[in-house]
Amino acid sequence: MKSAVLFSGGKDSVMALYYSLNKGDDVQYLLSMESINKESYMFHVPNIHLTDLISEALDIPLIKAVTDGEKEKELDDLKVELANLKELGIEVIYTGALFSTYQKSRIERLCEEVGLKTISPFWHKDPREYMELILSSGFKVIISGVYAEGLDETWLCKEIDRNALDDLIKISEKTYLHLAFEGGEAETLVIDGPIFKKRIEIIDSKIDWHRDSGNFHVLDAKLVDK
Fold first, then answer.
1. pLDDT by residue, tens only, the chain of 226 residues
2. Nearest Cα residue to 181 out of 99, 123, 83
3. Which of these, 77, 71, 72, 86, lies nearest to 32 by C-alpha position?
4. Does the N terminus or the C terminus of the chain have fewer Cβ atoms within 10 A?
5. Residues 142, 186: contact at Cβ < 8 Å?
6. What are phi and psi of 111, to 5 degrees?
7. CA–CA separation, 14 vs 144, rounded Å?
């Protein structure tokens, strides 16, 4: 089946891609929506500029579109790109939706309107099992934004390895933290994994921290042979 993946470079879109490839789909495109509005309701924002480099690392073509990110109107911009994918012969769109009905329902409606099937392979998967799967699959995931109780500045740029996941589990037992960050508690960036032909090496970066939340911004990065 000819497929495309709604892609941000975060763990969920990468896992959706991983699922599609393992299923044997012909993944022809990654689709990234770059929102000018940093408070977009629909689209991932931190380090979205790196999707170009990640696309090259994965050796899968990227289609990138810019949206103002205005609530609901940003859906019109997405619909244009979905219609273009349909014209290019794409049959199904994969998403990394886990629990957000807001995003999933809107994407499904748009895809239905343009004649595309949608698949969210990890919808309602147990968060702990999901995070365990990411680790056991061999993906290298770093945290690029934190916005929740229990997550301080030290979590920015931290890799989610076994020890980090154990710490997240302990935090989640004391707070309302969703282990897979589906409540917007954190954002992630994947820099290597089994489907990467090359890995991402971060050359320059900065941290913006404001009282109880912040972001890890990648200013420069390159591809490195594995």
1. 999 999 999 999 999 999 999 999 999 999 999 887 666 656 767 899 999 999 999 999 999 998 876 777 788 999 999 999 999 999 999 999 999 888 899 999 999 999 999 999 999 999 999 999 999 999 999 999 999 999 999 999 999 999 999 999 999 999 989 999 988 899 999 999 999 999 999 999 999 999 899 999 999 999 999 9
2. 99
3. 77
4. C
5. no
6. -65, -40
7. 15
